[in-house]
TrEMBL record, chain B:
Its main location: membrane. It is found in: Cell membrane. The keyword Cell membrane applies. One of its GO terms (cellular component) is plasma membrane. Keywords: Cell membrane, Membrane, Transmembrane, Transmembrane helix. Belongs to the chromate ion transporter (CHR) (TC 2.A.51) family. The keyword Transcription does not apply. InterPro entries: CHR_Transporter (IPR052518), Chromate_transpt (IPR003370). It comes from the Bacteria. The chain crosses the membrane at residues 70-98, 110-127, 139-172. The lineage of its organism: Bacteria, Pseudomonadati, Pseudomonadota, Gammaproteobacteria, Oceanospirillales. This is Transporter YwrA. PANTHER family: CHROMATE TRANSPORT PROTEIN-RELATED (PTHR43663), CHROMATE TRANSPORTER (PTHR43663:SF1).
Length: 176, 185
């Protein structure tokens, strides 16, 4: 059942994804592209690019869009609910318990131990985008866009929205 | 009405909150503590600390909890919807238009050109997560955990949920500081 699959695909990344929104991205990719094949790697990259250019949390934007693509408004609702509701219910239900443990070393350890794994998955995803771009646009365009984007983002702290817009202009003019 | 105030407060947070969840926290604070005085500074810090003990996006847990505290279930719904809905609709509309004209050469070129940008952003996140991991665990343990987890996930084909679930469980149940974290994976 598609709604159940959508629920699981977003519930699992969000319930294990310690470290905030960005930590969830490679976990969602593993479900949406890897496990269920709802999206191609390129489609996922496009979604992520637009998601990074727009405000508001990345996890719910991804869930809303992927859910809508897969199963319409109902799908969007299920995917967003799976993203938001479980951890929110935990927070409302177990507030007292969590309050006592908010400085607990165990809780800190949980996000600390998960981080290297997430970093590895992010590195893997970076590599995946590289091969995808090589296949779609070739080495020259990949290098030009990649290097300019890296300089803009890292060196000059340019807003991601402008970097994405710049790439769109470049792509519209020089790749086709 | 409190629900309306909550809605517009978190609508502003959602619209101006560029850069993902953690970047939105100062905006939430400006609305909730400074503008509306729904929470004091200390309460806000506690809610943030509690939110961080749980998985999932911080930018929906905080509005949800604050909305609930101010105006019950309907306040919770108003705050969460205000923060997430506008940009979900924007995504669906913009990507919908984009996919309709995918066959046009220069539009396809635009789609291809954003992949290297996302690659760079993901590389940045990778570095950021590894750097934080290095600061907490040291580079040796960080690399060892990353390599072992990578081999289990990508070489053995184990679902990442099992790997991370096992690590979370080990972190939670282990009574004292232990040296070998990767044993759990």
């Amino acid at each position: 059942m598609i709604y159940w699959d959508l629920f699981l695909a977003f519930f699992i990344p969000n319930i294990i994804g310690y470290g905030g929104g960005p930590a969830i991205i490679p976990l969602i990719e593993a479900e949406v592209v890897g496990r269920y094949g709802w999206m191609t790697s390129q489609g996922f990259a496009e979604t992520l690019a637009l998601g990074n250019a727009l405000p508001s949390p990345i996890a719910t934007k991804m869930a809303g869009y992927v859910g809508y693509e897969v199963a319409g408004i109902g799908g969007a609702f299920v995917a967003v609910a799976a993203t938001v509701i479980p951890s929110l219910l935990l927070m409302l239900g177990a507030l007292g318990l969590l309050y006592r443990h908010r400085d607990s070393p165990r809780v800190k350890r949980m996000s600390q131990w998960v981080r290297p794994v997430i970093a590895m998955m992010m590195a893997w995803l970076t590599l995946g985008f590289f091969t995808e771009s090589m296949a779609a646009s070739g080495l020259l365009h990949t290098l030009i866009i990649g290097i300019v984007a890296a300089i803009a983002l890292v060196r000059f702290n340019t807003h991601p929205a402008f970097v994405v817009i710049g790439a769109l202009v470049y792509g519209g003019l020089f790749i086709s | 009405m409190k629900q309306t105030a909550l809605f517009w407060a978190f609508f502003r947070v959602g619209i101006f909150g560029f850069g993902g969840g953690p970047a939105m926290i100062p905006l939430v604070r400006a609305e909730v503590v400074t503008r509306h005085q729904w929470l004091t500074d200390e309460e806000f810090a506690d809610v943030l600390a509690i939110g961080n003990t749980l998985p999932g996006p911080i930018a929906t847990k905080m509005p949800g909890y604050i909305g609930y505290r101010v105006a019950g279930i309907s306040g919770c719904a108003a705050a969460v919807i205000a923060v997430i809905l506008p940009m979900i609709v924007a995504m669906i509309v913009m990507l919908g238009i984009f996919s309709r004209y995918r066959d046009v050469g220069w539009i396809r070129g635009m789609g291809q050109a954003v992949i290297p940008v996302v690659m760079v952003m993901m590389a940045q996140l990778t570095w950021d997560f590894f750097d934080k991991s290095k600061a907490a665990l040291g580079w040796l343990i960080s690399i060892a955990m990353a390599v072992i987890a990578g081999a289990v996930i990508y070489w053995l084909g184990v679902h990442p949920g099992w790997v991370i679930g096992a690590i979370l469980l080990a972190a939670l149940l282990r009574p004292s500081r232990k040296k070998r974290a990767e044993g759990a994976a």
